[in-house]
Amino acid sequence: MTRRLRTLSVSILVGWSALFALPFPSDALVFIDESTEPTLEVPPDFPYWDHVTQRRYGGPTVIYLGGGWALTAKHVGYGEIVLQGEFIPPERGARHTLLNNNLSIADAVVFELKQDHPRPDLPHLPIATEPPKQGEEVLMIGFGRTRGEPVQWGPARYRRTALTWSGAGEKRWGTNRIFEVDHMAQQDAYWTWSFVTKFDAPGDEEATPHEASATLGDSGGAVFAKRNDEWQLIGLMTSVGGTIEKPREATAFGDLTYSADLAKYREEIIRWTRSECSNETDDDGDQKVDYPDDPDCEAPEDRNERPEIDAGRRIAMGWLSGATALLVGLAITLRNRRQRRVSTPDSTSSSSAR
């Protein structure tokens, strides 16, 4: 089943944990303190904080995949990014829009950073091989607007409350729980296999300690899950959906954040952005994966985990080239000899006797 998103054209991440709860219709708000917001700038035991960055001039969010390649939402687009305090331009023409099996366009694009520009020494991000699971807790990181003042709407008896957004974005992190999987989200001309998270009120059984929802500027933001003690990139935030009647540029309980399911696009991402020696796959079947664990890889940028095959090919090509050169040489020699016999007069011929 598909549904068209009623969302922001450039939406997406952290409308932060709620200040309030409304368990019953009321003319008043019940506020809670800010204890649900993260107190740490970086999530605990998280090694990939620097991989989540943004477009230059305060633009939306971009994920650095490692190896000189970046990932963001298609509607954000490729461009110059900020990485560890440096401005790095894109490599001209080196970008690839991700596609679905029916060749429709997903809201995701990978692009290469300038090859002759110094690149940061950051590892490749592990991209999830398994799809997201309903109820799985996730970590969300983006450069979206933060929480502003509460605002109410609707009749007094059924008054509802939302959180307005700040005027500028900043890098923040929060948590949520996957509400729906295998959702084909439509936004403008893009169709994207997605999973959905829902902004739950404090005290809800599905709420997480640092419940978060996407806002303007979080497009292209990262969603991680910790699996088998390893943080894996599982999603790319693309859009939000919510109640039509609520005020613009505000987040309310029940709002949804849509994130591209990167397990479904992993093969294409790896094909464009990584060599065999850094693609997290045992390409040569020796039960050793990538540099430095696979001794056949001399560096992460090596294109082939099968140097013995390459060496065999080089030897074969060398023999073939040598044999070809020998045959050509023999043919030239035989031709020259034949030409000399035809063009040189025989001393015993009748023509030479006269």
Outline:
15% of the residues lie in helices and 35% in strands.
CATH class of the largest domain: Mainly Beta
Uncertain stretches = 1-33, 339-354
What is the annotated CATH architecture of the largest domain?
A: Beta Barrel
Order of helices and strands: EEEEEEEEEEEEEEEEEEEHHH
Which range best describes the helical content: under 10%, 10-25%, 25-40%, 40-55%, 55-70% or over 70%?
A: 10-25%
Distance between the termini: 103 Å
User: What fraction of the residues are assigned to beta strands by DSSP?
Assistant: 25-35%
Structural class: alpha+beta
What integer value in Å does the Rg equal? 30 Å
Domain module tally: 2
CATH topology heading of the largest domain: Thrombin, subunit H
Which outline best applies? elongated
Query: Would you count the extended β strands for me?
Result: 19
